[in-house]
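Aim 2 progress update. The chain analyzed this quarter is reproduced below.
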Amino acid sequence: MIILGIDPGTTQIGFGVIEKQRNNLSCLDYGIIKNNGKDKLYDYQNTASELNKLLVKHSPALAAVEKLFFFKNQKTIIAVSEMRGIIILTLANNKIPLYEFTPLQVKQGVSSYGRAGKEQVQQMVRLILGIKERIRPDDAADALAIAICCANSYNPFNQ
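Predicted structure tokens:
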């Protein structure tokens, strides 16, 4: 089963694609969707277009997106929420089942500790997926963590 994890943002949207075969997880792809941040409508269109390309390339069975649980920067919460809407609509238009996880759930799903730091989560992602080099940018590492959390949480019998 192929799972797409997405870490929403405005100018950088992290994505991570993993494959689950029985209890083994492997990394197929990761990176970012880059936006210029100067024209919201262009950024929305670019995000949908780039996400559609990823969906065609990898044909994921599931997608997982990080929920906005607590946001320190009030100026960007609306912009990130709008971009989440574009992401969710694109997934819905492609009939990809969507799962959402809070940052706490992602940290627990990857490191078994909800207060784990970014370094600890990244180290666990690399260990779980067998990636030797540091995952850059951090948004892509976060997206892989979201995909792993989904893989570990998904139960086809609870649908």
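The two ends are 16 Å apart (CA to CA). Strands lie at 2-7, 12-21, 24-34, 62-66, 98-101. These observations will guide the mutagenesis experiments scheduled for the next reporting period.
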